[in-house]
Amino acid sequence: MTILFIFPIRLFAQTDTSGTSDEILINGKRYKAVDEKKTEAVKKKKNADVPDSIFVINNKKFQYYNNWLTGGGGGQQNLTYKRELGFAGGLDFNFHLKQQYFQTGIMLSGERFGSYTNYQFHLGYGKRFEDKDYHFAAFIGFSYAMGTQVIQVDSVKYTRKPYSQPGMYLQAEVVKKITYDVGAGFSLFADWNKEQSMVGLRFILYFSGAYTGKKNKDYYDY
Questions:
Q1: Are residues 99 and 187 in the same domain?
Q2: Residues 33 and 80 reside in one and the same domain
Q3: Of 179, 180, 186, the residue nearest 205 (C-alpha)
Q4: Contact, 80 vs 196, CB < 8 A?
């Protein structure tokens, strides 16, 4: 006589008892749920947020519209008083508002380095072109010059005449880049006012604010 014992068997299925829509329960452990559609949407948004002005060179990020600083010294010729070639030194800060470029700077000039009789301040508007090897820019604007004219009366007598005059200023520069944001070149300038006219050429060093950091996964080489 065979006696059959029947035991009730319950089958347990993996169920989600987390109580939240972004978690799942597997083998008694809670895991963060991943929505593939949302993940793809986030990736697309990150790529869409990359500014058009950003590009990458050698795993470094740069921006097209940037500010830069130039400074240096050279020679100048006073066209009004027909003096011998003198010294001119200057420093310029060049900045942008959106996609428009402006320049503000100072220039010191005189018969020689360390002996200055003219101090000039200028502000101008300009255009710029640059690539990974060269930088070109040109500006036109207003200037304000002040100083002292030393005028020779005879072989032993000189007179001094102080002045301060508004005027017009023109500058063009060309730079060969050593790296994308550092370079060296030349700046040709001219300054006109009621007191005097002056032209000159300066050797300049160039430093730009184009570098913005290391490349990350959301930026791609162009």
A1: yes
A2: no
A3: 186
A4: yes
In a domain, 2, yes or no: no
Q: pLDDT by residue for the chain (222 residues), tens digit each?
A: 454 444 454 444 444 444 555 665 555 666 565 555 555 554 555 544 445 577 777 778 878 789 999 999 999 999 988 788 999 999 999 999 988 999 999 999 998 998 899 999 999 999 999 988 999 999 999 999 999 887 777 777 778 889 999 999 999 999 999 998 999 999 999 999 999 999 999 999 999 988 777 776 554 444
Residues 134, 131: Cα–Cα separation, whole Å: 6
pTM for this model (two decimals): 0.69
Domain housing 90? 62-211
